[in-house]
Design brief:
The protein has helices at about 5-15, 20-25, 40-45, 50-75, 80-95, 105-115, 120-135, 140-155, 160-175, 180-185. It is an all-alpha fold and about 200 residues long.
Length: about 200
């Protein structure tokens, strides 16, 4: 399989909308119709069904990890593996099956990072968890993870194609959460546990 094939594989895996699929399986409303409108685990949680949200989270993370794993198993070169991982993340942001309007990509990014390196995934997850635990803002945890991920990747993995992929993922993650950052500054961003109709 060539580089284009790995990119296509990653993108198609990333395009699988687990938030929509899980919601339909549980008989819930389409997550694009309430809350923030994002097809992701955080918004599915607003339905009140924690199991559906958990399955969405796991599915979104698994597709990112699987894209990297398959590229590795099919003999992809380092740049192929990096491209497959980024393509999966990009597929979640702009999924083919949802008219290119996807979620923010936190879980899928985490899956990709774990695929690149277990220690990278754990380190970035620790940053996210620490910020969320202290400030109770899920979005702030994602922003902190996006900022630190390239630095952690540089320390653990050095340079190369993987670092480039991590940097691009981090940049898009930060951009996707720019509105959340503005709401945090304005004091209108809901904390975890608060009942709000939107992010």
């Amino acid at each position: 399989m060539n580089t284009l094939g790995f990119a296509l594989l990653g993108y198609l895996l990333g395009s699988i909308p687990f938030a929509v699929v899980t919601s339909r399986l549980f008989g819930l409303a389409d997550p694009r119709s309430y809350g923030s409108g994002n097809p992701g685990a955080t918004n599915v949680l607003r339905s009140g069904n924690k199991l559906a949200a958990l399955l969405t989270l796991l599915g979104d993370a698994a597709k990112g990890w699987l894209a990297v794993f398959l590229a590795q198993q099919f003999g992809g070169q380092p740049q192929d593996v990096a491209i497959a991982g980024f393509a999966a993340f990009f597929g979640h942001l702009h999924p083919l099956f949802l008219k290119f309007k996807g979620g923010k990509g936190v879980a899928t990014a985490a899956g990709v990072l774990f695929g690149f390196s277990l220690w990278l995934g754990l380190a970035v997850l620790a940053v996210w968890a620490g910020v969320v635990w202290f400030f109770r803002y899920s979005s702030l945890g994602a922003i902190a993870a996006a900022i630190t991920a390239p630095l952690i990747a540089m320390v653990l993995l050095g340079g190369g194609d993987t670092l480039t992929a991590v940097f691009c993922i981090a940049l898009l993650l930060f951009w996707r959460h720019s509105e959340n950052l503005q709401r945090i500054r304005a004091g209108t961003e809901p904390r975890i546990g608060e009942k709000k109709s939107a992010e």
